[in-house]
Amino acid sequence: MPARPGTAAILGLSALGLALAASFGLSGSARRRAPDFVLVNEGEPSSLDPQQGTGVVEGRVLRFLYEGLVVRDPKTLAPLPGVAERWETSADGLRWTFHLRAGAAWSDGEPLTARDVVLSWKRLLDPRTAAPYAAFLYGVRGARAFATELDSAGKPLHAFDTVGVRARDDVTLEVEFEHKVAHFLDLVAHYALAPLPEHQLAKLQREHGDRWELAWCRPENLVVNGPFVLSERRIRDRLSFTKNARYWAADEVAFRAVDVLGVEHPNTMLNLYLTGGAGWTGNFPLLLAPELFAREDFSPGPQLGTAFYRFNVTRPPLDDARVRRALALCVDRRALVERVTRAGEVAQWSFVPACALAYEPTELAHAASFAEDAARARALLADAGYGPGLKPLPPIELAFNVQSNNQSVAEVIADGWRRELGVETHLASLEWKIFLDAQRALDYAVSKSSWVADHPDPIGMLEIFRAASPNNRTGWKDAEYDALLDQAERASGPERAELLRAAEARLLDAAPIVPLYGYVTKNLVNPRLGGFFENPLDEHAPRFWYWKSDAELARDRERDAAARAARGLAQREHVAAPGDPLGLYSEADREPGSRIERPDAVRAPGER
User: Fold this and answer.
1) What is the phi/psi pair of residue 14, to 5°?
2) Which pTM does this prediction carry?
3) Of 9, 55, 167, 288, whose Cβ has the fewest other Cβ atoms within 10 Å?
């Protein structure tokens, strides 16, 4: 199909992209082996420890290596069997029993047992681990007390046998709750709750002492249970994965080798994708967004994620809620999404995205126009003692990570603060790990942030601002906010929604954060990639990926064209789809009656 107007502006970057691809070692002569698939991640992961990882960058990598009791359907996000082949709950919902797969094994061949799950969850809750997602288990009997009631040395006061998690035998895990947690399967599907290899961790502790966790994440020591193993790691370059032959569903995994590139700059991400150096990138330069909408490899959809700024409420003048509210109001959100981000993002005055299921978010009180909001912001600053005829507000530093398009957004917001409030803002661009370390240490004034929900429930976003949450990173604490979330955990239906709305209102009024806009997915994906679906969590599991054959690709394109015609939508431009014309399928897909032999029937994940 002929290139439409504007596409040349994108493809014109290809010459640079070829040079970049070569610099990343993507040419055949520079590689020891060619991976079946390459994806561009948005930086170097801060950790390969599933209980320390937080953020999209880490999540994409950890899904290669670890699998929990439950996984998510790649299209619907519904829970599917993972390490556990089945489960049941008691009539009152206070006891869950998971039955692990007989014969489940670690990548070194050792059996995977329910004891490994118990060890993992104990480590997750132990405050000395400082796991960002420990609160996922607080509904379990005794878990919160174990994690939060400590002696003078910082050790748990209670023995772990007071926690309602036990291995009844090698393949049976029993979990008892203090109150019903309706979304527990969504939590169990998160990588933080994946089992850990008890035997390997004990071995590394004997061999390396206090430095065992550093040794653990080296490829030669990283024993895992996911669909891939880590075969090589080059810091600031790539992670190389090969198929885990001992994974319980190894015959359903099509790709034998995958490379994940740690790239922080959107121009580089896009160029690697456009030149065939990668089959998927989740980011690109903002200014090119309008040029991508007509392409078949770009299908943005609503995402359970929010772009926002954090305030360090322990640092003057941001210790004054009036100052924080003034800065939060003085952001022209509509201009941001229409003129800067331009990928379909939604201007947002709530922290929880409007697309959250069965929940209507509470919004930061605002006027119909930005001019009115700016006037209200000036009045708030004057009330706090700042402005014309009063003392000047001191300069503010705004920090952001170098990947993504954060500088463009920061420049627009800083300009608005200067023009409307007379506030000078200094911009600080930091590499991902340095940026995260600064946030955790509260070594910042204002910091760009984002939060993509870890499970499809609004409490998964609101709970990060609990006083004790490692993901809070603002210094803000509010006992009433925590109490409202505690009550919501025990409630259901409309009552639960109202409690969550009350908590969100309290958060927005105190203003330790500035919600900016709701995310949309921004994936550019080779149309030949099968098993990849846009979903509100923007979560994609490599276990399900494969290459479509020419015949399957043509069939899918015909279906898409027919569906768009039926809805009165413009047809999308076909783009290059590099890959084997015969496709690359899993062993299960090559069995009699599989999808290859039945091209009109789509095999569900895990279906045999």
Assistant:
1) -65, -35
2) 0.83
3) 9
